[in-house]
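Saturday, quiet lab. Running sequence design on the structure tokens for the scaffold JK sent over.
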């Protein structure tokens, strides 16, 4: 097998202190220009999103616009009143897929400010729907020219963050002479895309690519236009999800997809408002990122990773999210398992880092990928998704007893095991390492996948191939779980014995090679290409507790490290200790606090009996969510809690992001001490006193519904009709 040899992961265009926001194909991250302002508004549904400034506008040349399946269909969307931008009164997201903007006219020679009120209401499905209402409060009738400036570029997602090539000559325009429609079409080889802007009522005229309405409104008179933006993509017409404005923007609307999905989830009742509010926000955010797919004739559901740059299937994110949300349903786990199994690699390919049995890292469908310029259809540069797939397979079975699905994916499970042993271990030392073979591959192929996310205590970047500690923990857990399946539905006792022996040997070897006695005792972040410990102190140790690879006698030291002032900020566990040279509270993996990371850390602490420590993390995270409209973002800065009254935002965090939105659901399970197996649930609650009683009704498990009620260390669990 070909590897790249010993070298260091490097960015494509090094910068002294990168503040990452979006990942470029070779694993670097670059800051995005703040061209939409700090109050930018994003709405999303499935694989579609619209990102605008607080006015609801998308200026030309910005990173905003309407994007579907990695292609931008609207690159400009600006509203003008008499050739002047309106004043912002206020704007906000209503639901993850909808937003409202309230504006007024700016001061003009013949029209004083605040005489014209404007409301924009917007939602996305697989396309855009917008209503603009204009009302006059002037004493006399006033002429108004309302202009909607429209632009398209059909840019690939990877190009949106860069300076785009000029495509104006390649875009055909077919605008309706009566002002009712703008039409755009694009072709590059086999890649085609198109968009329309349909206006009701029709515009008074079309000026270039702008729709212009000429109005005269008397005092108190109002006027409304509705705009539909269906998309044409890969020879398929994509129309907006059918929703009614009353459902979306009225308080009691309840027939939309979010309401229906929430209606099928467990009901929550709690003494603590924060528990209920964060729970409902998590559910709403997760449904907004749900994507339905058809696999072998079955309709399944998976989650996209996050807004704005990761609205696609990421293997690691989807697997962790599905694990986190088991307490509210098993359908996401089932869909994720089947979707990744359908794309499991069967051959070797350097450009995509593909190897037989490996599960994908990232799937893209934009122009650059479809034309073979980018390696993301799909790209396999992750050394942990294959093990996490086995972990989720086992956990799904423990919650459902679904032997049929296990038999359906048996070949996939065995192929995943072969990948771990034959391709994951690059040099035969018993550890799973990573090193890209692709010219556009990721340098780091663990969850800390920024180019400098893995570094030593002195700040040096280790040479490849790298074996990070948590990947070994996942491998240990995956082998023990597959042994359980081999003893059970797979009826393969010989394999079960072999896997348990291999797991035991891995645990012994791991403790010997990764444990460092200095600085109070801790596990190294990894081993570099020269088998030297990568000696930084990181949150990854909490993943080791989650996987169970830590010997009982080491667990106390690991817990102390995780809860030390160097790692625990007061809002959560940092990704990197303040005692390491590379620490940066606003460095992407260098000291920020990640909710999904903390959910696994807390779950691992609870697994080893450190319930107070787990609860300390959970309470801090819930309070952090309270400061961001009950939503946990991808990450927030790692400044100490004494630095301010609320967490300092990470400048370019995805929000929402699936595994951050799912973190509170795993927090609930951790406090409940809820485990599944052998056709039954086990409950061992430990809920902080100030959170009081929590009741969750209609929890799915073993083909029926359950009610769980906990208060402190007391709880009961009973089946319900």
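Result came back. Writing it out in full:
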């Amino acid at each position: 097998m070909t590897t790249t040899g010993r070298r260091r992961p490097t960015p494509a265009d090094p910068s002294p202190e990168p503040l990452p926001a979006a990942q470029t194909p070779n694993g670097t991250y670059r800051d995005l220009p703040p061209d939409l302002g700090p109050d930018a508004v994003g709405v999303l549904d499935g694989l579609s999103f619209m990102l605008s400034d607080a006015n609801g506008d998308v200026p030309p040349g910005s990173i905003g616009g309407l994007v579907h399946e990695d292609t931008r269909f609207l690159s400009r969307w600006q509203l003008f009143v008499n050739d002047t931008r309106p004043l912002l009164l206020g704007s906000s997201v209503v639901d993850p897929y909808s937003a409202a903007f309230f504006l007024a006219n700016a001061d003009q020679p013949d029209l004083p400010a605040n005489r014209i009120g404007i409301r924009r209401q917007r939602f996305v499905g697989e396309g855009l729907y917008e209503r603009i209402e204009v009302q006059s409060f002037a004493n006399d009738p006033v002429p108004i020219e309302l202009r909607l400036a429209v632009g398209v570029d059909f840019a690939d997602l990877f190009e949106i963050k860069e300076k785009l090539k000029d495509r104006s000559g390649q875009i055909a325009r077919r605008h309706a002479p009566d002002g009712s429609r703008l039409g755009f079409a694009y072709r590059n080889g086999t890649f085609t895309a198109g968009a329309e802007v349909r206006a009701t009522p029709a515009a008074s005229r079309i000026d270039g690519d702008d729709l212009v309405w000429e109005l005269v409104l008397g005092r108190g008179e109002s006027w409304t236009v509705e705009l539909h933006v269906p998309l044409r993509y890969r020879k398929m017409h994509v129309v907006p999800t059918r929703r009614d404005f009353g459902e979306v923007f009225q308080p009691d609307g309840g027939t939309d997809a979010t309401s229906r999905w929430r209606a099928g989830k467990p009901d929550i009742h709690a003494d603590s408002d924060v528990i209920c509010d964060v729970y409902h926000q998590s559910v709403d955010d997760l449904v907004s990122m749900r994507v339905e797919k058809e696999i072998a004739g079955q309709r399944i559901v998976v989650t996209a990773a996050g807004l704005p740059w990761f609205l696609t299937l990421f293997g690691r994110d989807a697997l962790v999210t599905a694990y986190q949300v088991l307490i509210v349903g098993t359908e996401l786990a089932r869909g994720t398992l089947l979707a990744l199994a359908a794309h499991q690699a069967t051959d070797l390919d350097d450009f995509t880092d593909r190897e037989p049995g490996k599960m994908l890292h990232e799937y893209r469908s934009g122009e650059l990928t479809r034309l073979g310029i980018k390696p993301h259809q799909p790209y396999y540069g992750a050394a942990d998704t294959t093990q996490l797939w086995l972990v989720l397979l086992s956990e799904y079975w423990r919650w459902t007893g679904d032997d049929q699905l296990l038999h359906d994916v048996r070949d996939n499970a065995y192929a995943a095991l072969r990948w771990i042993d034959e391709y994951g271990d690059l040099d035969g030392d018993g550890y799973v390492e990573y090193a890209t073979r692709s010219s556009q591959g990721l340098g780091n192929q663990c969850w800390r996948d920024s180019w400098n996310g893995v570094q030593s205590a002195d700040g040096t970047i280790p040479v490849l191939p790298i074996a990070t500690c948590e990947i070994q923990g996942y491998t240990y857990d995956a082998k023990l779980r597959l042994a359980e399946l081999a003893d059970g539905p797979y009826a393969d006792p010989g394999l079960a014995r072999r896997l348990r022996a291999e797991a035991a040997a891995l645990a012994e070897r791991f403790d010997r090679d990764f444990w460092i006695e200095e600085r109070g005792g801790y596990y190294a972040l990894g081993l570099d290409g020269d088998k030297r410990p990568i000696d930084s102190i990181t949150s990854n140790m909490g993943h080791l507790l989650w996987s169970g690879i830590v010997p009982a006698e080491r667990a106390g030291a690991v817990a102390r490290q995780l809860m030390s002032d160097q790692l625990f900020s007061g809002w959560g566990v940092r990704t990197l200790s303040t005692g390491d040279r590379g620490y940066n509270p606003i460095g992407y993996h260098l000291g920020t606090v990640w909710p999904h990371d903390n959910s696994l850390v807390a779950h691992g602490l609870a697994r080893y009996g450190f319930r107070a420590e787990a609860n300390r993390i959970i309470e801090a995270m819930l309070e952090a969510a309270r400061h961001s409209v009950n939503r946990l973002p991808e990450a927030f800065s790692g400044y100490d809690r004494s630095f301010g009254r609320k967490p300092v935002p990470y400048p370019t965090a995805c929000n929402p992001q699936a595994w951050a939105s799912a973190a509170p659901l795993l927090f609930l399970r951790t406090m409940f001490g809820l485990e599944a197996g052998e056709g039954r649930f086990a409950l061992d609650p430990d809920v902080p006193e100030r959170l009081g009683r929590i009741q969750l009704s209609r929890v799915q498990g073993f083909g029926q519904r359950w009610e769980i009620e906990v208060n402190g260390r007391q709880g009961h669990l009973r089946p319900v009709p």
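Notes for JK: Residues 12-34, 235-240, 244-258 have pLDDT under 50 and may be disordered. The longest strand covers residues 116-125. Ask whether to fix the surface positions before the next round.
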